[in-house]
Specification:
alpha/beta; Rossmann fold; two-stranded antiparallel ribbon; 7 strands; 49% helix; globular; SGNH_hydro_sf; phosphatidylcholine lysophospholipase activity; Ester_Hydrolysis_Enzymes; Putative lipase; SGNH_hydro
């Protein structure tokens, strides 16, 4: 085989390997399985009512129980302290993990935030639940979700949704203030999460 053909064959093999890689999936949820939305004010629904926060809307869209375990002001460090009680109380099958915004607002070292996210994922998995990671944009002009979300997701083989809040918080029509959605914005987030869960095999 000529050198050119060997190079072509190697290139085709690389494309085949890459093409076979799939995004991490989730097990299908049963009708009685509980989802816990674990996060900060974006999960709690600051800027709207609890009834229009994304967990409530997601529950309606999916027909599943979605527990709103959002605490305004929560950081990844404080979340580590309260996570065990939430897991013990609700026994979820799936946890939607959406944290990091307050770490960024308080200018915590990214390495600490990333490490805390990894510890949160480990604790959730140790309880027997699956994890879906939801990224939020950096609180800067035209900020995108920081790279640590993708690193955590890649290393721990997690489904990562990194578009919903990023898109909503760029649209003034969907925001209650610079860092929170309004009711319409949370509905958009819930709809995108429902589609993501469906594509990941959970619904």
């Amino acid at each position: 085989m000529s050198a050119a053909r060997r190079s072509l064959a190697a290139l085709v093999a690389v494309f085949l390997v890459v093409g076979c890689e799939r995004a991490p999936t989730l097990p299908k949820l049963g009708p009685d399985d509980v989802i816990v939305a674990f996060g900060d004010s974006l999960t709690f629904g600051t800027g709207a009512s609890r009834e229009t926060a994304y967990p409530a809307v997601l529950a309606t869209l999916t027909g599943r129980t979605v527990v709103n375990a959002g605490v305004p002001g929560d950081t990844t460090a404080s979340a580590l302290q309260r996570l065990p009680a939430v897991l013990d109380q609700h026994r979820p099958r799936l946890v939607l993990l959406c944290l990091g915004g307050n770490d960024m607002l308080r200018k915590q070292p990214e390495a600490d935030t990333e490490n805390n996210l990894r510890r949160l994922v480990a604790s959730i998995r140790a309880s027997g639940a699956e994890v879906m990671l939801i990224a939020v944009p950096a609180p800067t002009l035209f900020g995108r979700p920081p790279a640590f979300y993708a690193r955590v997701a890649d290393d721990l083989k997690l489904p990562l949704e990194d578009d919903a809040f990023d898109a909503v918080l760029r649209d003034n029509r969907l925001k209650a203030d610079p860092i929170h959605a309004n009711a319409a914005g949370y509905r958009v987030v819930a709809e995108q999460l429902a589609d993501f869960l469906d594509d990941a095999g959970a619904l």
